[in-house]
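How a chain folds remains the central question behind the approach discussed here. In the encoding step, the backbone of a single protein was reduced to a row of integers, each denoting a local shape. We regard such an encoding as a compact summary of how the chain folds. The sequence in question and its structure tokens are set out directly beneath this paragraph:

___
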Amino acid sequence: QVQLVESGGGLVQAGGSLRLSCSASARTFSTYNMAWFRQAPEKEREFVAGIRRTGGTTYYGDSVKGRFTVSRDNAKNTVYLQMNNLKAEDTAVYYCAADGSWAFYRDPSWYDLWGPGTQVTVSS
């Protein structure tokens, strides 16, 4: 069973950048679509970005489009989220998730495999 662990979160000033990483334990990592979600206090879990197993197709939430970039390195069993021009409203716990479906889903209820999350705090 794949296990996911996020890293790279921290405190950054508005306008700055962070790169999150999600490392998977399974050697079958390349068979999974991967997604990033975030959740701020008292808010619903929100889709941020996703990438299909081949890495050729990516998806972004409207609030991060043009600022964030998702990528993956299947040889390293790792997916990345490059976050540029960060804003205060990006502050949240960021989660990595995996799904083995052919289709790609933005709804977090479709994902059964989750990392523990990493905190991103953007100060103004």
